[in-house]
Amino acid sequence: MDNIFIGTSIALMLLVFVCLYRAIIGPRAIDRVISINIIGTKALVIISLISLVFNETFFIDVAVVYALISFIMTIGVSKYIDTENID
Amino acid sequence: MLNIIVTILLFFSVFFFAVGTIGLIRLPDTYTRMHATTKGDTLGAGLGLLALALYNIDKPFVAAKLMIIIVFIWITNPTAAHVIAKAQYKKDFIEKTNRGQGE
């Protein structure tokens, strides 16, 4: 069962790199915000999988805090792009 | 039996994540990219964390924390998409209005 968790983590990590491509070439600032939001969601699932692979249940708490930070980052950067004149 | 269910759920989780990522790369507009990624990633994260909660069904504290993460994601991910779309739409609207006045 550990092999399935590790394989899922590797597949999600490859998808994170594909998202990073859009974050690099994104023509506007808001495309980068979308891409980083998606990377945050994927990293959340990867942290939960890794916590099962290592049998360390306190990584789940790290995942909770990561979800909070990712959400607040997205809201803050969106408000910043809204108020400042950034393309 | 539980392992088979967990494997199927994880497979569908990766499938929906991949659909969202392909949409993020391939679609032509900001709003269509957001449309693909928000739904695909919300469902993918929900299925993946549900699979982990089912695998930890004998440790109820861990399963409860994973379910709390699922509920949190299902609240916050559409909210973040809404805020992003509102910011971009306001900028596009102002730009279009200014261009209309300039002509």
Automatic annotation (TrEMBL), chain A:
Native source species: Alkalicella caledoniensis
Tell me which domain of life the UniProt entry assigns to the organism this sequence originates from.
Bacteria
Designated name of the protein:
Cation:proton antiporter
- Cellular component, GO, one term: plasma membrane
Transmembrane portions of the chain: 6-24, 36-54, 60-81
> What Pfam families does this protein map onto?
MrpF_PhaF (PF04066)
The uppermost taxa in this organism's lineage are: Bacteria, Bacillati, Bacillota, Clostridia, Eubacteriales
Query: According to its UniProt record, which protein family does this protein belong to?
Result: Belongs to the CPA3 antiporters (TC 2.A.63) subunit F family.
Keywords per UniProt: Cell membrane, Membrane, Transmembrane, Transmembrane helix, Transport
Broad class of the protein's primary localization: membrane
Q: Which GO terms describe its molecular function?
A: sodium:proton antiporter activity
Membrane-protein topology = Multi-pass membrane protein
Q: InterPro entries, per this entry?
A: MrpF/PhaF-like
Q: Where in the cell is it found?
A: Cell membrane
Automatic annotation (TrEMBL), chain B:
- Topology versus the membrane, per the UniProt entry? Multi-pass membrane protein
Checking InterPro entries in the record gives:
PhaG_MnhG_YufB
Q: What is its main location?
A: membrane
Q: Which UniProt keywords apply?
A: Membrane, Transmembrane, Transmembrane helix
Subcellular location field: Membrane
What's an example of a GO molecular-function annotation for this chain?
Answer: sodium:proton antiporter activity
PANTHER family (alphabetical): ANTIPORTER SUBUNIT MNHG2-RELATED
Family statement = Belongs to the CPA3 antiporters (TC 2.A.63) subunit G family.
| Name of the protein in question | Monovalent cation/H(+) antiporter subunit G
Tell me the organism. Answer: Alkalicella caledoniensis
